[in-house]
Specification:
With 694 residues, the chain is of the alpha+beta class. Helix 5 (255-275) crosses helix 6 (277-284), helix 10 (397-407) runs antiparallel to helix 14 and helix 13 packs antiparallel against helix 14. The chain is globular.
């Protein structure tokens, strides 16, 4: 439905997608928000809007040069418009031109384990007149971006551009063209070259890879351009082996074919000798005794000496950096020492000018390759679509739930031990720079990473309308994020008192851009949001492994789709051609083609959606159904029998400890979705079959 402008007297209008009148307390809170002098354009209320602390949950507030510490969030780092992005059609485009396309395209992304894949992406303008730094790489490339943009390190973690140091190793992206015109990509996890069209196929963009009885499966480029790997240009065909061999034999009889196969064979033998010298020696031991005397005589001759000298001084070109290196062994040593399939930072220099900047959204992998040869993070509730079906879950749901509850702490609980992936998180080094009020909490923060928390946080197994299994969870930055927020809210309140500001609500105390307090808050926001993302990643990895153990015998599987979205956060964005800070308090970003997750209650449907980029909502949508009644009221209104009835068919706890999360305490999710039909389109409709509450 379209929004309605609320008939309340405020300096700034309030637009609502709720399709119902606000209660008196909700109206008062909306008035308080809209009375702040730095609010931009209007306040947008999502369909799930309800009472919160300071500001309504389900509200989107754009502000100029100030921010209210009411949500945890992260800034988006971005690139200047001339930054080149390699696309799978074999060309590289300026990121600004990609935005002008106004449609999806396919880029190269990288998993945390260093495997390059292909993924769909969209481009957008993110800030105007942004401050910039220049990142210089050891391959001579220069990348101009905002100081906070995150670069993917060689170990799969991320670090902001301004924190990169000389000799920092980044996740590399190397490509080249072989003699037949096919694009080859070097896989960082193995250092082996792989044909790009098979990367497209193995990323699932061509559907299931077929098998042809007795024949080899190959990929045909329909336009015969071997560098154009768009899915619509690729098709699987069977290669008839006998015909192929006969054709190759015929080709070998021609002068050109003979030369081609001779050079190819020589190259393969040299590589074999170089990479497996001991195996080669054993394979040829005893060979050549008959021709030894002729070889000795040749080497002693003038012609032989000239040939030996020419070989000893022959130069070979490194395909990674293009430098010429003497002898094959020299080239091998050069690759090992200088590259190891790695890029390194030379320097990071601040720039004294500003520019409009752009970024990509890559929903499944959240990073993308630059033409400069490195991977960077894109602008996470978390859900993955698995390859499992409903039938495979039969009889296993209770055991899966018990295993989840044993593996992932809930409520105020924490992990007994800190697992390796947690202790290796790079941002623990930055803990000392957080607010002094949390400096005694690092140990607790480490043990809570990979824990669910309480309230409306949950872990769910869901089924879509095609009976495909989805894994979903909702959690945030745990105790450390809450403590940081409380510290900064206290600071904002004290500053307001000192300045004599008369605020309608103390929780609307704010920081002004350019002040030390603003910078400190913004820094801690970024750290907290990074913590929240990794917390979800750690839990999802455990969750996925538990399901795989029960269904697939522990064999790791690849998600068919992965979605991450923040529910409470602040970002710098461009709206109505202005740079603003957008605080989404219980709302999800829904720019064009943004994937989002809108969960219902523990007995209702949930939805995976794509944004429509509605400007009046500041490109936002609801983050769930929204509460109809408080937790205490729900406990007074409903009984345990009501909970059992309303969660029929869902494997979950059915005790008074989760009574406040009963579906009846929430708005009907179908109505909420109908109210925001102009904000999002539904990609998948999910129904819970298992739920673990925090």
């Amino acid at each position: 439905m379209p929004y309605e402008k609320l008939e309340i007297t405020t300096p700034t209008p309030v637009l609502s997608w709720a399709n119902h009148s606000l209660g008196s307390e909700e109206t008062k809170m909306a008035k308080n928000m809209a009375s702040l002098p730095f609010v931009f354009k209007h306040i947008a209320l999502m369909p799930d809007v309800h009472l919160g602390k300071g500001a309504l949950v389900g509200s989107v507030i754009a502000t100029k040069e100030a921010i209210i510490p009411a949500a945890v969030g992260v800034d988006i780092g971005c690139f200047i418009g001339d930054t080149l992005i390699p696309v799978v059609d074999g060309k590289s485009y300026r990121i600004k031109d990609l935005m002008d396309w106004g449609k999806e395209f396919i880029v190269y992304a990288c998993t945390p384990t260093g495997k390059i894949v292909a993924a769909q992406a969209t481009a957008k303008l993110t800030r105007r007149n942004a401050s910039l730094v220049k990142v210089i790489l050891d391959n001579g490339e220069e990348i101009i971006c905002t100081p906070d943009h995150q670069f993917m390190l060689r170990d799969g973690t991320y670090k902001e551009a301004q924190l990169l140091q000389a000799e920092t190793s980044l996740m590399p992206f190397y490509s080249k063209t072989d003699k037949d015109g096919y694009t080859l990509i070097s896989q960082p996890y193995s250092s082996k070259w792989q044909k790009a069209h098979w990367i497209i196929a193995r990323s699932g963009l061509l559907g299931k890879i077929p098998r042809f009885e007795g024949q080899k499966t190959v990929i045909h480029h329909q336009n015969f351009h071997e560098s154009d790997h768009r899915p619509e240009n690729l098709e699987f065909i069977a290669e008839f082996e006998e015909k192929r061999i006969a054709s190759l034999a015929q080709k070998a009889k021609t002068p050109e074919g003979y030369q081609y196969y001779a050079e190819r064979g020589t190259k393969n033998i040299l590589q074999y000798m170089e990479h497996q010298p001991e195996h080669f020696k054993n394979a040829v031991a005893g060979n050549g005794n008959r021709g030894k005397q002729y070889l000795v005589e040749y080497n002693k001759s003038e012609k032989g000496r000239e040939k030996s000298q020419e070989i000893a001084n022959r130069y070979y070109t490194c395909e990674i950096c293009g430098i010429d290196v003497k002898t094959p062994i020299g080239l091998h040593n050069h690759r090992r020492k200088e590259h190891q399939c790695n890029h390194k930072v030379v320097a990071v220099n601040p720039l004294n000018y500003t520019e409009d900047v752009y970024c990509l959204t890559v929903p499944q992998y959240h990073n993308f390759a630059l033409k400069a040869g490195v991977f960077v993070h894109n602008c996470g509730m978390s859900a993955i679509k698995t390859s499992f079906t409903a039938e495979q879950l039969e009889g296993k749901l209770k055991k899966i739930r018990l295993d989840i509850e044993a593996a992932i702490p809930t409520g105020f609980n924490e992990n007994k031990d800190v697992e390796k992936s947690v202790s290796n998180w790079q941002h623990w080094d930055d803990f000392k720079d957080l607010h002094r009020g949390v400096q005694d909490l690092q140990g607790k923060a480490m043990k809570q990473m990979g824990s669910l928390g309480g309230g409306n946080h949950f872990i769910e197994v869901c089924l879509d309308t095609e009976n495909q299994v989805w894994l979903m969870l909702h959690s945030g930055s745990r105790n450390i994020g809450n403590k940081l927020a409380q510290c900064h809210i206290h600071t904002a309140r004290e500053l307001a008192k000192m300045a004599g500001n008369k605020l309608p609500d103390p929780d609307l105390a704010h920081f002004v851009a350019g002040t030390p307090e603003f910078q400190a808050y913004w820094h801690d926001l970024q750290w907290s949001q990074n913590y929240a993302r990794v917390n979800r990643d750690v839990m999802m990895a455990r969750f996925k492994h538990i399901v795989e153990r029960h269904i697939a015998g522990g064999k790791a599987t690849k998600p068919l789709l992965q979605v991450n979205c923040h529910h409470n956060y602040a970002e710098k964005e461009v709206h109505f051609d202005e740079n603003v800070y957008v605080t989404r308090k219980g709302a999800v970003r829904a720019q064009t083609e943004d994937y989002g997750i809108i969960p219902g209650s523990m007995g209702a449907k949930s939805f995976v959606v794509k944004g429509k980029g509605n400007a009046h909502s500041f490109c936002s949508c609801s983050h769930g159904a929204g509460r109809l009644m408080s937790r205490n009221k729900a406990k007074n209104v409903y009984t345990l029998d009501d909970l059992i009835e309303q969660t029929n068919g869902v494997e979950c706890r059915k005790d008074e400890g989760v009574l406040d999360e009963i579906p009846g305490a929430y708005k009907p999710i179908e109505q909420v979705m109908a109210n925001q039909a102009d904000l999002v389109e539904v990609v998948a409709t999910l129904k819970q079959v298992l739920c673990v509450k925090g």
